[in-house]
UniProtKB/TrEMBL annotation:
GO terms for biological process: DNA repair; methylation; oxidative RNA demethylation. Gene3D superfamilies: Alpha-ketoglutarate-dependent dioxygenase AlkB-like. Fe cation binds at residues 138, 140, 194. Substrate binds at residues 76, 83-85, 142, 168. Keywords: Dioxygenase, DNA damage, DNA repair, Iron, Metal-binding, Methyltransferase, Oxidoreductase, Transferase. It is an enzyme of class 1 (oxidoreductase). It catalyses: a methylated nucleobase within DNA + 2-oxoglutarate + O2 = a nucleobase within DNA + formaldehyde + succinate + CO2. Pfam families: 2OG-FeII_Oxy_2. Its cofactor is Fe(2+). Belongs to the alkB family. Dioxygenase that repairs alkylated DNA and RNA containing 3-methylcytosine or 1-methyladenine by oxidative demethylation. Has highest activity towards 3-methylcytosine. Has lower activity towards alkylated DNA containing ethenoadenine, and no detectable activity towards 1-methylguanine or 3-methylthymine. Accepts double-stranded and single-stranded substrates. Requires molecular oxygen, alpha-ketoglutarate and iron. Provides extensive resistance to alkylating agents such as MMS and DMS (SN2 agents), but not to MMNG and MNU (SN1 agents). It comes from Cupriavidus pauculus. This is Alpha-ketoglutarate-dependent dioxygenase AlkB. 2-oxoglutarate binds at residues 127-129, 211-217.
């Protein structure tokens, strides 16, 4: 993975450092997926043609404001019975679409850049946000193997990532995530509470009024 020459110029006062530490085990790789953005978004279109975005219902009966789909061997789903990873899309009754090769490669490269060698995700959850969509504070703990990191790719409209602590009550920091930013997190940060503040309206050249987030996981 290479960065734009512009970004690499040491004399550019706006140049962001490539890897920004967030907490122990967690890092933001600014612009890491920018170059791959169009290919990744094209692949999102192919996945969602097979398994369309839908609003899942939480175990408490609330419809989530973020729309989700999945690709890979297993997908994250929620319904009245709970949260789980499932090899079958409950809407179609068929396996989820396979993980596109550019997804697999980017996840692997980003994990390696963050110090997690040989990351092999078996699931990719795809989240779609429209203006006003939010994701309340939660932990990602439905994966069996918590030693593997999570790789999270932001595409389209920017968002405010809420980065809390290991207890739900810990007040979250606000981190702006723009198109192409990748967050890799694991180790001591793996169970940190996090969320997304209500998305601000905007118009992105590649996604229009949407933000797309890919989170890659090794679920078992
Ligand atoms: C999002 N991300 O950025 C939601 N979870 O749209 C997550 O919930 C998330 O970014 C675990 C690890 C990284 C994440
Ligand atoms: Fe999460």
């Amino acid at each position: 993975m290479t960065f734009d020459l512009f970004d690499a110029l040491p004399t550019d006062p706006d140049a962001a450092p490539a890897a920004e530490p967030l907490a122990p085990g967690a890092v933001v790789l600014r612009g890491f997926a920018r170059e791959a953005g169009p290919a990744l978004l094209g692949a999102v279109g192919e996945v969602s043609a097979g398994s369309p975005f839908r609003h899942l219902v939480t175990p408490g009966g609330l419809r989530m404001s973020v729309a989700m789909t999945n690709c890979g061997e297993r997908g994250w789903v929620s319904d009245r019975t709970g949260y789980r990873y499932d090899g079958v899309d409950p809407d179609s009754g068929r396996p989820w679409p396979p993980m596109p090769e550019p997804f697999r490669q980017l996840a692997r490269d980003a994990a390696a850049a963050a110090g997690y060698a040989d990351f092999r995700p078996d699931a990719c959850l795809i989240n779609r946000y429209l203006p006003g969509t939010r994701l309340s504070l939660h932990q990602d703990r439905d994966e069996l193997d918590l030693r593997a990191p999570i790789v999270s790719v932001s595409l389209g409209l920017p968002a405010t990532f809420l980065w809390g602590g290991l207890r739900r009550a810990d007040g979250p920091a606000r981190v702006r995530l723009a198109h192409g930013d990748v967050v890799v997190w694991g180790g001591p940060s793996r169970l940190v509470f996090h969320g997304i503040a209500p998305l601000a309206a905007g118009d992105h050249p590649l996604t229009g009024a949407e933000r797309i987030n890919l989170t890659f996981r090794k679920t078992r």
